Amino acid sequence: MNQTIETILNHRSVRDFEDKALTKDQIATLVDCAQAASTSSYLQAYSIVGVTDPDKKQALAKLAINSNTVVDSGHFFVFCADMYRHQMIGEMEEVDVTPSIESTEMFMVGSIDAALAAQNTALAAESMGLGICYIGGLRNDMGLVSEILNLPNHCVPLFGLAVGYPAVINDKKPRLPRVNVYHENSYESDPTHYKNQLEDYNQTTMDYYKERTNGNRQDKWTTQISKGLINPNRLYVGEFVKSRGLNN
């Protein structure tokens, strides 16, 4: 096992950071690593906004309901699906690219490009001894995030990435069994077989929480996830994205 694989397998979210900002060189390196990620058809359909202004960090933290992680991070990155520069390309080349950049396919491309860039950033940060935490709570109010960051049309915020020096490192959460995730040649969807695998994983997660909380918590994974899925969340997102000129 090489060092890269060890870094990947040792991942855990860090939510408590030391009061220490990243250096300009560290930030530049992380952005360079983000840009080295694969990108569909060389489109590079994403942008990253680094947030250092204390007031803006506070505002983003409040709407994300994750104040300490955002505010105390050494640097906060916001990853966006971005077709604004491609609209500029159309104007420069005097061609109509609007139907293309406003398609569902291009929104998926931008979202995937942003996710790939973010994961490169996360792995690079962890390899540097830093901790990371993804902040999906920015989607609680994408309109407000867009206002705070002055995002143009055809650019929407997808998630944040808090990076910094870990103050507390939690235990690594157990993932689903490999057989529940990896299917070879054909999807294994037999209900009995599938549910048996999930019951095994329930026991794994119960043991994890029991040990982590000294017996105060013994959540089953299926119970935890089902509670989160009972009520649909952020139903405004589809219309908001369309209002920004994407996924039409």
UniProtKB/TrEMBL annotation:
Its EC number is 1.5.1.38. GO terms for molecular function: FMN reductase (NADPH) activity. Keywords: Flavoprotein, FMN, NADP, Oxidoreductase. InterPro entries: Flavin_OxRdtase_Frp, Nitroreductase, Nitroreductase-like. Residues 8-165 form the Nitroreductase domain. Signal peptide: none annotated. SUPFAM superfamilies: FMN-dependent nitroreductase-like (SSF55469). The keyword S-adenosyl-L-methionine does not apply. Belongs to the flavin oxidoreductase frp family. NCBIfam families: PRK10765.1. This is Oxygen-insensitive NADPH nitroreductase. It comes from Jeotgalibaca arthritidis.
